[in-house]
Amino acid sequence: MCDSRSIKILSDLDSAFRRHPQLKEYDIVPQLEPVANRSPVVVVENALGIEAWGIKLMYQYAYCKVMKWRENFKDSRGRHLRLTDASFLDHEELISLTRAVILINPECYTVWNIRKELICSNRLEPACDFKLGSLILSKHPKSPETFAHRKWLLKYHCHCQNSSENSPGDKRFKLKNNNESDFRDNLVNEHLLEDIVRQELDICNMAAEKYLSNYHAWSHRIWVLQTLSWSKKNIVESELEATKRWASMHVSDHCGWQYRQFLIERTIDLVPSKTTQLLQSELDFVSELLASFPGHETIWYHRRYVVQALMEHDSYKLLVSEFGEETRHPTKSETSDVVDMQSIDIELQKDMKCTKKIKLDKCILQKAEEAFVDSLLKGCTYNAQVDLGSAYLKWIDIFVTGIAN
């Protein structure tokens, strides 16, 4: 009886995916007992719902059948065979069973690996798993295995695109040991690549909205930019603007601020000439947030990051503007057998002048920050804001003293 009901629920789920290929959301309907004679699978406006009473029946049936199939197909040494090495269940049934399992339990990496094998054997389209992953993240936005599978899909997709252009028919792709350096050599054409990046960033944004301080979503977002668009200035700049809006609405999301710091560093690498302007603009932005949202530790920590970056950049700028290049002592290979002591004295004098300039510059910035905190805390009765401001002043004093020494 249980098996027949489970099969019927699974069949209804398959029908829902066939009739509604554009499903965007998925959730469990809190219906603990069946009502009348209707299916627990419901679709409303591209949103999939499964009533709670049907979850256990369907999951136990699908999981047990997949694991039993997995155990039955081993070679003489007890190793699991791949789809390409033996004939298994009908691949359509396997797709259905694995989909039911990971919809309910997306951390079952064995099932994700089975779907990887289905993709590599050309029995499942990568696009299907891209859509399925997005659907799962709407319910489980913090699922590390789902994000890991998306990384693998992106690598596989780019590999196949590159293989089609360079050597049609050669689409072999290792399930394991595919490192980042190999992947960067298999990137697809520019327009397709940008579409993929935009799609992944939208997915990460959705997951971050669903679950605040979502480390896995923000880490995946960083990986996408590092791997797929490391040198794309327009994408990095648009992300920097987008996260400014995000930070204004989620001031306590540590992961979002960490991602913004990653973007700032990347922008400095891509456009070094705008470093001072960028950091000063960020300092003004943080000042506005501290005034509007008192008592949020995350904003104070981000200000530390900005001030430290500004100090380090200005130190380098002073060295360059003073002498035209970074001051340094001559190396052993750059000197002749006879050491010119006079030239070394000149270099030491330059170093001392630079150090004095750097100390002066740091003291000016420190005083400016002290004045800002004093004005911010003047008349403030919110204890958390006062404590955080005091801690910030102690930090900046220790930090500047450390640089001066």
Secondary-structure map with pairings?
Layout lengths: L1 H18 L5 E5 L11 E4 L2 E5 H21 L18 H14 L4 H12 L5 H14 L4 H23 L13 H5 L5 H21 L4 H14 L4 H17 L4 H17 L4 H18 L4 H27 L17 H37 L5 H22 L1
Helix pairs in contact: 1-2, 2-3, 3-4, 5-6, 5-8, 6-9, 8-9, 9-11, 10-11, 11-13, 12-13, 13-14, 13-15, 14-15
In short:
The protein has 405 residues and is mainly alpha-helical. Helices cover 69% and strands 3% of the residues. The radius of gyration is 29 Å and the shape is elongated.
Describe the fold and architecture:
- With 405 residues, the protein is mainly alpha-helical.
- It is built from 15 helices and three strands.
- The longest helix is centred in the last third of the chain and has 37 residues.
- The protein is elongated.
- About 11% of the residues have low confidence.
Secondary structure: helix percent: 55-70%
> What is the general shape?
elongated
Strands of the biggest beta sheet: in what spatial order?
A: 1-3-2
Largest sheet: 3 strands, mixed
Q: Give the strand content.
A: under 5%
Poorly predicted runs of 5 or more residues = 167-171, 315-339, 344-358
SSE run: HEEEHHHHHHHHHHHHHH
**Structure classification:** mainly alpha
Mean pLDDT: 81
How many helices does DSSP assign? 15
Query: Cα-atom Rg, whole angstroms?
Result: 29 Å
Multimeric status of the protein: single chain
Distance between the termini: 79 Å
Number of strands: 3
